[in-house]
Amino acid sequence: MIAVAPDNSGRIRRQNQERILDAAERVFAETGFAGATIAEIAASAGLPKANVHYYFSTKEDLYRAVLQSILTLWLAPADRITPDSDPAEAMADYIRAKMEASRVHPYASKVFANEILHGGGQIQPFLSEDLRRRVEDKAAVLDGWISGGRMAPVDTRHVFFWIWAITQHYADFDIQVRTVLARKRLARRDFDHITAEVVRFVLRGLGLEFSIQQG
Amino acid sequence: MIAVAPDNSGRIRRQNQERILDAAERVFAETGFAGATIAEIAASAGLPKANVHYYFSTKEDLYRAVLQSILTLWLAPADRITPDSDPAEAMADYIRAKMEASRVHPYASKVFANEILHGGGQIQPFLSEDLRRRVEDKAAVLDGWISGGRMAPVDTRHVFFWIWAITQHYADFDIQVRTVLARKRLARRDFDHITAEVVRFVLRGLGLEFSIQQG
DNA sequence: GTCTATACATAGATAGAC
DNA sequence: GTCTATCTATGTATAGAC
Fold it and tell me: What is the 8-class DSSP label of residue A76?
């Protein structure tokens, strides 16, 4: 009888779960929930099919776990937006963080986009609770800036939709972007250029163009 | 023997194909290619399953036909952007047309988004030929405006990505938008408000804010 | 805890009567 | 041209040996 030490066993468990989650994120991103197969996820994780079922009993369980791991990333960038911060600085930081997220976690962005696109049934609570509250809070901050004459008057909740749309576009629609630009891939320096352009565009759109100097 | 008159038979044929295409567009939009079933498409079209196979031999054929019917819609709005037009007017018209497309054809937008999201294998020629050429042409028009000092200096090809991202967001991510705004649905007047906000934001972002008066 | 073999369900596609 | 019945493939999930 080969008994595995508890600490070690726990590590293997976590390690395998992590491998499966990473593989699943990629496969779900590339083919959607229905298109993804356990076989492909297992192969991509370097594990036999039944092993995936051992850690995540059903495909839906696994999908929910992937979504969960994404949602924790999703709200973080908005932390920079506070009443006391300089509007232009705060919004520029936010946009940069969102662009960085698109560059580093394109699969996460695609899984999220796919879930929303198909009705968002699995993340309804996140949308109606966490995200909604967050947007209300941050929109209130922007409204304060507008009242103080520090920003152009806009419907502030839509400002977030626009920033999400633009920044996530570079992850979700990357094939279209690369094809239209005739680029094989978008490297870090491409993202730096794009990020600077997006920051300038959005800040100008919000009437914040004169406040910052650095791109 | 019941022979159907040729003209009439042609009409039934077109009518059934149209019903199937409409139903397929909706089902593909809601569940993606893999998630869609012929049974659901047939039910939604009010026809038996085998009838769908009669008109479109395979699921992929049907999917391609749906995409084809969308692509013809996709390039039209950019026609308003010409060297002689007033920059602000032309861009405002373009944005309004794209927002209207999102309002009227949300399923088409979702099918397109889904296809891009999953690699765009079925529309690669469209992306690399038609769309790429169109963007190059229209970006050149914008570059001309910039040279003439009529618009702020920006990377003009990305301007199109931004406008697509924002306007299509209201179709593709409608569940998120509605949930965050706590609205059951977005009516025509909601779209009118949003469109005006988007037009103002984008024009200001492009340095065109002073040129137009009407929202 | 791992993995092979397999049961079971679903869905794409087709044969053939009408 | 329409539709029922069915074939076949694929993929989820599980049983059971190791």
Answer: G
CB B107 within 8 A of CB B26: yes
CATH architecture classification, A68-208 = Orthogonal Bundle (1.10)
pTM of the model: 0.94
Q: Is B165 on the interface with A (CB under 8 A)?
A: yes
Contact by Cβ (8 Å): B197, A138: no
The CATH superfamily assigned to A9-57 is: Homeodomain-like (1.10.10.60)
The dihedral formed by the CA atoms of A137, A141, A143 and A149, expressed in degrees to the nearest 10? 180
- The pLDDT tens digits for A77-124 are 999 999 999 999 999 999 999 999 999 999 999 999 999 999 999 999
Q: At what angle do helices B59-74 and B106-117 cross, to 10 degrees?
A: 110
How far is the CA of B58 from the CAs of A193, B55, B118, in angstroms?
Answer: 44, 9, 20
Q: How far is the CA of A40 from the C1' of C15 (A)?
A: 34
